[in-house]
Design a protein that fits this description.
The structure is a homodimer of 307-residue chains.
Chain A lengths: L2 H25 L4 E6 L4 E9 L4 E14 L2 H4 L8 E13 L6 E11 L6 E11 L5 H17 L5 H11 L1 E2 L4 E2 L3 E9 L8 E2 L2 H26 L6 H21 L1 H8 L4 H5 L19 H10 L7
Parallel strand pairs in A: 9-10
Antiparallel strand pairs in A: 1-2, 2-3, 3-4, 4-5, 5-6, 6-9, 7-8
Helix pairs in contact in A: 1-5, 3-5
């Protein structure tokens, strides 16, 4: 294991503490902590807040896994050989109030190949899923990520914003999952067919730390101003149906989720991303001209939020 | 289009009427009917019962589609060429009462290839998903299907029961979706690698009609005796979580659902199969020795229900 891997893992653990402490303070309820071992190598620490006052369901998970990929799986990644190690932080917060958006973020570091013949890269991103559209929230969220990108030698906000819109898309609904944010992968290696870009790993690491460290700036102001907005039963119902879309994306398309489920990952840590409760109603459509219809319009045609 | 395809389609339409009329009488609320056209050829008729007194969400869908498969997709099926036609009935009923099991059934007929050089087969099955285990319900359900198989020249209950257990399985939960029933595919063609079996299509058609016509016998007695059982809030909560498993199976593994979503099928008709409302709670486990734990035990180790 490299010192960069150790450093990234420690950064993710510290970030997990910082984020959960802040969110727990806002919520008034603590996260519960579970640590787990992976029989094939490594393990993780999951922090979960369930039935909070503000957060109806939330999880901030850190893992560090090592081992050998199957031959077929190894071929999908850059680098020779099947040995790998991966560490990452993944978080999702589903607030109770329909006016407060769901947020997701993930940052990860991977190495593949034997020592001396290995490749390494970072991936990650953050995206926002409102159920009631507040353009100023979307603008704030994107502005934070644009600033992070602008501070970095290795990240271009325009490219990462576009990648996010493309990734968090639900083809069968012809809708984006939310108003996006940033998404990147294979940052640090020359793999254009995967979206990867050769870059100094020192610079990439600095960018990822800056992004991780900016998560609370991106989300907390939004949560603070929406968490106590009065809402109607109809708005709550709309939220539960929008959560259905979130479930559809995660179970049908999300690579992390489907990969985890199909490779015997820790199911509880993977599916803590699913909101609860959730509804599906046949032919559920908002009225034309309503603010729900306006949100759908934005989800069907991703727009720019900052210059 | 062959006369067998026309005959199968008409049988499915009549069966849809018969099943929805019977269920609507039990429920006290009618199904709503939507007919739809498929731009590339064919269309369907969906009958949906939402927020009924007995059925919280249910759909009985018939479709008849014709066209050309993509080359890649065509190669996954027996027969030459890309032309195909398919007609089928698919139904799912999610009762409100946690003591009344969810039921699913599907019967379909397919032809592939040009006239004079085509292959044809039937597929289908029925399976039961209880949230509270009543062994007598599982026995009754299986006995009906065993009797149908025993009356047929082309179906062996043992094989179809096993296929059902294997198909409706959730690998990441290491659980069956329910207590099974029967499942078959490619019946009528010699395709052992797909589970298909050469058989006289007259015999197969008679078997499918007998099976479709037996659905109400298999399910209605169970629904009648469980629909009004008193239940606790804890039982309702358990039901909502078990419904989460149903969503996981349908969105992650069910071939019909994922195929439909990824090939631009009619989303509302495909996802009417999803129950509502649904819950996911991190680390949700029944108490040892409870009847919920007993159900899990059965789902983890499929058993025989009839001799």
């Amino acid at each position: 294991m490299s010192t960069r891997a150790e450093r990234a893992h420690q950064f993710f653990l510290d970030l997990q503490d910082k984020i959960t402490e802040t969110v727990a303070t806002i919520d008034g309820r603590p996260f519960q902590t579970d640590t787990w071992d992976r029989p094939a190598g490594g393990g993780g620490r999951s922090k979960v807040l369930q039935d909070g006052h503000v957060i109806e369901k939330g999880g901030v998970m850190v893992s560090f896994v090592t081992g050998e990929m199957s031959e077929a799986f190894a071929q999908q990644f850059p680098g020779r050989g099947r040995e790998f190690m991966a560490t990452g932080i993944s978080l999702i917060l589903h607030p109770r109030n329909p006016h407060a958006p769901t947020v997701h973020a993930n940052f990860r570091y991977l190495e593949k190949g034997k020592a001396g013949d290995s490749v390494a890269w970072f991936g990650g991103g953050a995206d926002l899923t409102p159920h009631v559209l507040y353009p100023e929230d979307a603008r704030h969220f994107h502005q934070v990520w644009k600033d992070v990108c602008d501070r970095s030698e290795v990240a271009s906000y325009g490219g990462l914003k576009k990648w996010c819109d493309e990734y968090f898309y639900i083809p069968h609904r012809k809708e984006a999952r939310g108003v996006g944010g940033i998404f990147f992968d294979y940052l640090g290696i020359d793999a254009p067919e995967l979206g990867g870009k050769a870059a100094d790993l020192e610079h990439v690491e600095r960018f990822v730390k800056d992004a991780g460290g900016s998560f609370l700036d991106a989300y907390v102001p939004i949560l603070e101003r929406r968490k106590n907005v009065n809402f109607s039963e109809a708005e709550r119902d709309w939220q539960l149906h929008r959560r259905g879309r979130y479930v559809e994306f995660n179970l049908v398309y999300d690579r992390g989720t489907t990969f985890g489920l199909k490779t015997d990952g820790r199911v509880e840590s993977i599916l803590v991303s699913l909101p609860s409760p959730v509804k599906w109603t046949y032919g559920y459509e908002p009225e034309a001209g309503s603010k729900e219809a306006e949100l759908l319009e934005v989800l069907r045609t991703p727009r720019g939020w900052v210059d």
